[in-house]
Structures are given as structure tokens and as C-alpha cells.
Amino acid sequence: MPELPEVETVRRGLAPIMEGRRLIRVEQRRPDLRFPFPDRFIERLEGQTLTAMGRRAKYLIADLSSGETLIMHLGMSGRFTIVEGGQSALQGEFVHQAGGIAAHDHVVFHIEGGARVIYNDARRFGFMDLVPRTALAESRHMKALGIEPLGNELDGARLAALFAGKKTPLKAALLDQSLIAGLGNIYVCEALHRAGLSPRRAAGKLALKGGKPHAKADLLATAIRDVLVEAVAAGGSTLRDYAQADGSLGYFQHAFRVYDREGVACPTAGCKGTIKRIVQSGRSTFFCASCQK
Asked: How far apart are alpha carbons 293 and 285 in whole angstroms?
């Protein structure tokens, strides 16, 4: 599933094409994706101007001139392709034919100025919904989400407060979307390695007696921010189906230190360990037992 950097990369690709422009026509080619489309989906979109393209956690959020917000989730295989002048715009270091099989093009936005934005989703685990902007924070999609890892709220003190008293493994706590919204398996593995923290360590150990943050909490907060910023700059990580809105592939996977590197020597300077793989809560965890404590 695309993680925060991939969704942010898609947002940045869509914004110049869609922001400030009217949705001239919308094609809805099936009644549902993961969930049914909202009532009068086409009617509520056509003719509206998309005033801003945002992101919350792993959701794309498009504000409309009607006062509603279009919430979009990519699911496992969802992708947006921008078509201008009859051809897909392709660029970037790793490029492939954009869009996938046309039979899986489920929604097409015809944008003022002539561009088309096509939502393709082979597995149909993504979805789209419409909610009033004033009710967005309390919508079923957003109300349980925690803080944004790229926002100003994330620091060592906040991590210590969120995890205080928790005996759950640190990796599981970081993946809890009600605590920190948008973190996924790949970037949690990478951040924990950078911070020198074991994924099996009890999350509550990031807080000292009295609630003050352990020194490692500050390191982890910095590592989370750094790895996400670097991944966004690299265009995300191309694993299985993910591609950017222009069809190009992200390439942060070439900078992975631990993820999917089982058996490879640890890249930490002076460390003689090797990257191991374990399974936590049904997910693969990659880490170095020698330098991550």
C-alpha cells in the first residue's frame, strides 16, 4: 500500500493540473470501489472548482468550491494518470507506461483546460468519498487519526507522551494510525534503524520516569522526519503497483538501509551485523540486531 511519501508525491503531481480549475465532466465507470461511491457523486462534482489539493495521512483531500471535500484513498493498487493532449506525461529516472490496463480506469476527471486525470485501480481497494469541509475532521475517515509525522507536533517529547506506559513493541506503536497518522511499514523500519532502536523494544521505554523523553525519542523523531522528507524528494518507493501521477516511478527504494535487505551487511559505520527479518503483527520487519537496541 502506498505510504505517506508516495501519497504526498501524487498530491504534488496532481496539484498543478487540478488546483484552481473546474471539473468539466466526471466519468464514474462502476458503482463502487472498496466502498460504494457517494450518492449523486457525478452531480456533486461536475462544475465545481477544485480550490486546493491537500493530504492528511495517506488520504488525498480535494477542496471544492461547493464547500464539500473529495477524499481519495489509493488502497493497494490505485494510481492517477494525467493525460494532456492525448498523451500521458512521463518523466523521471524510472519510467514505464502509465496507467495500467484501461479496463481498470474507474473514474475520469475532465479538467478545465483539456487535461484528463484518470483513476486506475486493478484491485479496487481504494475509494472516494464526499464530505462537507466543515465536518472533515470529524468524518469517519479522519476522526481517529493521530498527529502528522511531518507536522510541527512531532518531537521527542510528543513521542514520549504518546507511548508512555505502552508495553507494545515500538514498531507496532509507530504503525498505530491513531497515534501517528501516515507512517507505514517501510519507513518505520528505516527510521528505527537510523535511530538505533530495536523494533521489539517496548514503546513505553521512550519515556523516562516523570514522562520526560529518553534521548532516543528525539533521535527517533528526527529520523522519522528525515526519512519521510528524503523519500518525498525521491518520489517515493516503487514497490509492486505504485507510480507517480505522471507515470514515473519513485526511487527511494535505492536508498533503503534495511527494508528488504535481509542478509545484507548493516550499513551503519563500524557495525559488523547483518540485516535480519522477523514478522511482527503479520508484517515483515527488517533491522540489525547488533546496532538497534
From this structure: 15
| Choice between 91 and 265, residue whose per-residue pLDDT is larger | 265
Q: Are strands 127-132 and 87-88 parallel, antiparallel or unpaired?
A: unpaired
Q: Which of the residues are catalytic? A: 2-3, 58, 283
Q: Count other C-beta atoms under 10 Å from residue 70's C-beta.
A: 23
Residues 121 and 185 in one domain: no
- Give pTM, 2 decimals: 0.87
* Angle in degrees, CA 258, 168, 55, rounded to 5: 65
Q: What angle do CA 206, 150, 180 make, to 5 degrees?
A: 50
The Cα 150–Cα 84 span in angstroms is 32
Residue 146 lies in a domain: no
pLDDT for 207:
95
Residue 242 bridge partners (DSSP): none
Task: Return the C-alpha cell found at 63.
Answer: 477542496
By residue range, what is the domain housing residue 273?
Answer: 156-288
For residue 145, the 8-state DSSP code is -
Residue recorded with cell 502509465: 98
